[in-house]
Design a protein that fits this description.
Order of helices and strands: EHHEEHHHHEEHHHE
Protein name: TolC family protein
Number of strands: 6
Strand content: 5-15%
InterPro entries: MdtP/NodT-like
GO molecular function, one term: efflux transmembrane transporter activity
């Protein structure tokens, strides 16, 4: 029976409505995800084929040196011990389920890539806006100072300082625009090279992030993490592999039919044979037991390591949330730029001091942007399993 994917994705509210549409488009068009789907179906069918009966063997003998010549036709079919097929079927079922979780791992990865790219887009747009504001302030100031220079109130050295500062800031803005184009192209690539309809390329605000308690994220990991589920399914499958190894020590059978014609004398009948695994099954049960134990330890380690990561990320997010809350009101003060311009025009500070102050304000704002970007990035990693909560990422027959 062919396996097909349920691709009617219902994205949980991780993003704004517009970005929800972006995610839907990516899930429909992403070639990596489509490849993962085809790989799943191929691997699932290959696994199911492992439990097929062996191909019948047909032998035809033509005997020349008998009176009247002769023909022998033999058809045989090899059959494992009956319990082997049931044990192998259960093993394959768990392996196929593990493959489904491998596909879900790719869904989680693609979802996180989209969310991260959108965070990158917000970050670069905020920095572009900051740089444009600085340039606007400095260009306005250059106009004022140019008039003062014409009246010989300031020197050419001061004018050149500001012109050099403007040049540097324009270069920074150009680099930011290049970075923005790269991010937009990366989103297009995630969408299979297709344009993304509804994408707001000038988005400059993050979605609100509200931290839940750490236990909820640990619970989500245990319930939804496909990596953890792969490890658990492999653990169950390897337990089943022990039973397969035990059945391998039971006899196999050969049944068939034989027809013989010698010089017009015909005869036919059944063939029954048995294979006794005296040598082929040695060490297989012990090997299967050791493999089962190894997989169990690996599954436990996946759980422990992921829980450690979640606790660490959560503690970091709490600390960042507190720092951002205290730092933001100190930095985002629109009066700074106006006060500095007024102080310069009144002669209270020099042009050199003005440029230094502007650089300090810019650096402080960028530090805030760095902190908020880091918070958003860690939040995506902490909530990466949310994409699976609605259950639409399953694969069914």
């Amino acid at each position: 029976m062919r396996y097909g994917l349920l691709l009617s994705v219902v994205i949980v509210p991780l993003l704004s409505v517009a970005n929800d549409g972006v995610m839907r488009q990516v899930f429909a068009n992403n070639p990596d995800l489509q490849s993962a789907r085809m790989t799943y179906e191929a691997d699932a069918l290959n696994l199911k084929a492992e439990n097929n009966l062996a191909d019948p063997e047909v032998e035809l003998a033509y005997l020349f040196d008998r009176p009247g010549k002769g023909i022998e036709l033999t058809v045989t079919e090899g059959i494992d011990w009956p319990g082997m097929y049931g044990a192998r079927k259960k093993y394959i079922k768990h392996q196929i389920t593990a493959l489904e979780y491998v596909y879900q791992t790719k869904c989680v990865e693609i979802s996180a890539n989209v969310r991260s790219a959108l965070i990158d887009l917000v970050d670069v747009n905020r920095r572009i806006a900051l740089q444009k504001r600085i340039l606007a302030e400095e260009e306005e100031l250059l106009g004022i100072l140019s008039e003062k220079y014409a009246d010989r109130e300031i020197s050419i050295i001061e004018i050149n300082k500001l012109r050099l500062e403007l040049f540097d800031n324009k270069a920074v803005l150009k680099d930011l625009n290049v970075r923005k184009n790269v991010i937009v192209e990366s989103l297009k690539t995630l969408n299979g090279g297709n344009e993304l309809s509804g994408l707001d390329v000038d988005i400059a605000d993050y979605d609100d992030r509200i931290l839940d308690n750490v236990d909820s994220y640990l619970s989500d990991f245990r319930q939804y993490s496909p990596e953890y589920k792969v490890a658990m399914q492999q653990r169950i499958a390897d337990n089943q592999a022990e039973k397969i190894a035990k059945f391998a020590n039971f006899p196999g059978f050969t049944v068939g039919y034989k027809y013989k014609d010698e010089g017009g004398e015909q005869a036919h009948g059944f063939i029954v044979g048995m294979s006794i695994p005296v040598f082929s099954g040695r060490h297989k049960i012990r090997a299967a037991k050791h493999q089962s134990l190894a997989t169990a330890y690996a599954a436990d380690n996946v759980g422990l390591q992921e829980e450690l990561r979640i606790r660490g990320d959560y503690a970091s997010l709490l600390a960042q949330e507190e720092m951002i809350g205290k730092y933001r009101p100190l930095v985002l003060n629109d009066e700074y730029y106006r006060l500095l311009a007024d102080a310069l025009n009144a002669g209270q500070i020099s042009l050199r001091d003005y440029i230094i102050e502007i650089r300090d304000i810019t650096a402080a704002t960028q530090r805030l942007y760095d902190m908020e970007y880091d918070f958003q990035t860690k939040y995506v990693d902490l909530t990466k399993y949310d994409i699976l909560k609605d259950g639409s990422m399953s694969i069914s027959e």
